[in-house]
Amino acid sequence: MNVKPKLVFNLDAYEKDPDIRKKENQLSRLKEIGCFSLSSERFYRRGGDEIKILVMPGQDCFPLDLNKQFAKLWEADIYAEYLDNMLYFIRDNKDLMLKRVSPRRVEVQADIITHSELLQVLKCTIYSKQNWRIFGTKFLGTFYLCLGRPSQKEVTSEASQIKRTCQIWETKLKRFLYSDTPEKQTLNSQLDEGQFYKVFQSKMGEFSVIYGSPMGARCNQRENLFTDCKVMPPQSFIDDNSGISEPYLELSWWSECSLNGVEEIHVARPNTSGHVEAIEKKLTISLITKNSKNWSINKCNNSMLHILRQICSNIKVNNPDTIYEFEYDSNSRDLNFKPCFLRNENTFISDWYRSMLKDRVIVNK
After folding, report:
1. Measured on CA atoms in the order 196, 199, 200, 206, is the torsion positive or negative?
2. Cβ atoms of residues 51 and 327 within 8 Å
3. What number of H helices and E strands is found in the chain?
4. pLDDT tens digits for range 255-309
5. CB within 8 Å of 257: residues ≥ 6 apart
6. d(CA 87, CA 114)
7. Dihedral of the alpha carbons of 263, 169, 35, 55, in degrees to the nearest 10
């Protein structure tokens, strides 16, 4: 049975509401609670097998020719993965993640389980021209939220190609800057394409939120200090109409770093032929100062929390078979939703996970 989408709210109306605009929403400091890795084939692994290390090339290596690096763009399909990796993490950390609330009931120690990519999208929504879709469900009192593939594309084919080029350049740049060991290999050596994730807990307003976040590389001198590398496209690629602008790219970098605790990034500005003359180190706080007239972190955080509240308040049924689909249209700035009460292709809470919680297993075997 087709269910007609219902309007959750309109972002223009939200921005005009003086009561909401005045409200300050508190976000706590991030608390790192664990980690996991994904292999190059996107298989889950416990621990930090896929940690990368930043090893900067010497001055004699510049300009870096990104064309000399072969990089197959691995388009990690986070949509197809739903929340599988976070469910595996909970399974492997039952004593940390589960609590017994009664002799016959166990719950996850969080109000929301999600991934950083979703929170980053929500932080940027108030300034973004990006459409998005979120799937949500509720199981034993906890909300599970993940990104779905948007039904409508919001950018032109030209803008998509520019974004793809920048992604390829960023992948190639990491081959120059990242290593699997503290000792840098030859520049053309194959870097393992696996990914290291940290898991964080944060208090966002009234919600205790736990999420996984992909990390860049560990700085060689400090054990738990991480950085990331980014590409700012040539000026000829910049197009405000497509969302590829310097302020918006820096907003996306800040929002990502605010969710994984990264305090500095390394930025390359390749020319149109793919040559990099220098790598600039930037503090993420400098992105805020530079863009004070372009975007506000308070607006980003407040609107993110408002959207989370709207999503969670509309997920009424406490049943993992019931999936709520939330669709945001950046043109109308409407957020609509529709529920599906029967198990379907987007049901993403696995049977083994349901059994684990219902069997009330807490201690790792």
Report:
1. positive
2. no
3. 11, 20
4. 999 999 999 999 999 999 999 999 999 999 999 999 999 999 999 999 999 999 9
5. 228, 263, 265, 284
6. 10
7. -70
